[in-house]
Design goal:
14 helices; Na+/H+ antiporter like fold; mainly alpha; 0% strand; globular
């Protein structure tokens, strides 16, 4: 609960800064630092901790199975909306906040034994999808068409992906450097959440029916799909419950930051991240409760 309180406090700080004379492109500056410094440092710290085994394959697989389902639904849901709104939802719906929110929430709801599954879902699911799929969405909607060379270029130069490959090849960083890398990684959540809060506008010209549908899709429908797929596959309960809760996490802060930085419906993107975190305080415990009753 302390993590959720901290998250909400950072969002409120960002919203409070709207009232001050902030520098030009204040939010974009924060996003730039997050993408090029904070997130790569987080990758260097987290990726070497992962140990793959056969029981984890289903957890890694489920975000990739959910991705085309969510893309199809978003495309249908936004057929009468602008391309910028569609691009925003394509980024923030499939990608969840599966690390900062995921780790403490799942540890509280399922116990410490579930944390390895959280890291696998996050690093080999969310982070890779952000790097590959996120780059494709940005390339497609920034330029108006899909240029394969541009997508490949964005992927190969996208800092989280570059550092992910580096961490997979070289493993843990030297012990003497880890405190400094951890210090940089610790800036991810505060800066990203303040940026999101700064971009959030409550009671503004938001399309609230669309916002409600998007929140329902992210926080309820997506974990229901995950449960159905994993239950059909016969996945063992702890892995299943962890993956379902991960799929029902609120929208990824970094995905929201990318959408905002790219000009994809910034207010809607920020609202989906901010409101999603608040609503997930209710939906995640309820999902965990019903799964425990089921099993």
């Amino acid at each position: 609960m302390e993590q959720f309180i901290f998250i909400i406090a950072l969002l409120l700080i960002g919203m409070a800064l709207q009232k001050l004379d902030a520098p030009v492109d204040f939010s974009k500056s924060l996003n730039f630092f997050v993408i090029y410094v904070s997130l790569p440092a987080t990758v260097l710290i987290q990726v070497p901790k992962i140990h793959l085994d056969l029981s984890a394959l289903s957890v890694i697989l489920i975000p990739w199975l959910l991705l085309p389902i969510m893309v199809y639904i978003v495309m249908a849901m936004t057929k009468n909306h602008s391309s910028q709104v569609r691009a925003a939802l394509l980024l923030v719906i499939p990608l969840g906040n599966t690390s900062f929110v995921g780790i403490p929430v799942i540890q509280a709801l399922l116990g410490a034994d579930a944390i390895p599954y959280v890291l696998m879902y996050d690093q080999f699911g969310t982070f890779l999808i952000l790097s590959l799929y996120g780059s494709a969405v940005i390339a497609r909607y920034e330029t108006g068409t899909i240029h394969r060379r541009l997508i490949v270029k964005k992927l190969l130069l996208f800092p989280p992906f570059v550092f992910l490959v580096f961490a997979l090849i070289f493993g843990e960083m030297p012990h003497s450097t880890q405190p400094y890398i951890q210090l940089l990684a610790s800036t991810l959540v505060p800066l990203a959440l303040v940026s999101v809060g700064y971009s959030m506008r409550l009671g503004g010209a938001l399309d609230y029916p669309l916002l409600s549908k998007a929140l329902m899709l992210k926080l309820i429908v997506m974990p229901l799909f995950a449960f159905g797929i994993l239950f059909t596959m016969g996945v063992e309960p702890l892995a299943l419950q962890t993956a379902v809760l991960e799929s029902g996490m609120p929208s990824m802060i970094t995905a929201g930051a990318l959408a905002i930085a790219s000009g994809f419906a910034p207010e809607l993107s920020a609202a989906l991240v901010g409101y999603g975190i608040i609503v997930s305080l209710v939906t995640l415990p309820l999902i965990a409760h019903f799964m425990k009753i089921f099993f």
